[in-house]
Amino acid sequence: DGGITQSPKYLFRKEGQNVTLSCEQNLNHDAMYWYRQDPGQGLRLIYYSQIVNDFQKGDIAEGYSVSREKKESFPLTVTSAQKNPTAFYLCASSMGTSGNDEQFFGPGTRLTVL
Amino acid sequence: AQTVTQSQPEMSVQEAETVTLSCTYDTSESDYYLFWYKQPPSRQMILVIRQEAYKQQNATENRFSVNFQKAAKSFSLKISDSQLGDAAMYFCAYRSANNNDMRFGAGTRLTVKP
Fold first, then answer.
1. How many Å from the N-terminal Cα to the C-terminal Cα in chain B?
2. Phi then psi for B85, rounded to 5 degrees?
3. β-strand pairing of A109-113 with A10-13
4. What stretches of chain A show up as alpha helix (H) in DSSP?
5. Which chain A residues are closer than 8 Å to B106 by Cβ?
6. Assuming Cys at both sites, which of A9, A51, B98, B105 could form a disulfide with B92, CB separation 3.0 to 4.6 Å?
7. What are residue B86's phi and psi, to 5 degrees?
8. Using one digit for the tens of pLDDT, what is the confidence trace for B44-69?
9. What residues of chain B lie within 8 A of the CB of A40, using their CB?
10. Do B91 and A42 touch (CB under 8 A)?
11. Cα separations (Å) of A94 from A3, A8, A30, A49, B55?
């Protein structure tokens, strides 16, 4: 089955620790995205990548880092510099970067920093 | 920057009835795309319907249709013959035709009463 997988579904970390969220897609999509979702708010873009070895900051990139070494993988690292990391994180991918390209979403990872 | 506003944090509808969710947006661009996404309790984001700004005809997908008023910058979603499975958070989203900038509204929580 084609799709996007995110692991783990729930993640707990102590304050001050870096943590990496996994996102894998087997849709052969060029573009991948990371969003953050907080209660009462819509999704906000953290980072996106249009092609392997390239990525761009979104609206709320501070305290986060990404890599895109393989087409199918786009991991997100939440660093200790992120002031309020507890949130729901969604990964998405699209065939291209045209505005008409549908973004397909993964099931999300709920990160809780204790 | 473009903004998307959903003025109804919560809505409810009786099963089999019709409900309309509101969305307005602010942009100076003429070429863009609009989307409605559904997020059920599983939190998986699912595309419901999309509209190209250059098309005057309102998009329709089975029981879901939109009322796109470009001059008024309004993009409402109508759900006909509401079903229990329609209960979810609904997000309106705007995407520029020129870049990867996707903006989401804060969402409307729809409850369907049996």
1. 41
2. -70, -5
3. parallel
4. none
5. 40-42
6. B105
7. -80, -10
8. 899 999 999 999 899 999 999 999 99
9. 9, 106-107
10. yes
11. 11, 22, 7, 10, 22
Dump pLDDT digits (tens) for B1-12: 789 999 999 999
* CA distance to B11, B75, B92, B105, per residue, from B7 (Å): 10, 12, 11, 9
Vertex A104: Cα angle to B56 and A5 (nearest 5):
175
* A2: pLDDT strictly greater than 80: no
Are the Cβ atoms of B42 and A107 closer than 8 angstroms?
A: yes
Instruction: List the A64-66 sheet strands across, edge first.
Output: A4-7, A19-25, A76-78, A64-66
> What pLDDT does residue A39 have?
86
**Pairwise CB contact (< 8 Å): B106 & A44:** no
pLDDT tens, position by position, A65-97: 999 999 999 999 999 888 899 999 999 999 987
Question: Which residues does chain B have within 8 Å of residue A92's beta carbon, measured at their own beta carbons?
Answer: 45
Q: Quick check: B105 and A42 CB within 8 A?
A: yes
Please report the number of interchain residue pairs, chain A to chain B, with beta-carbon separation below 8 angstroms: 58
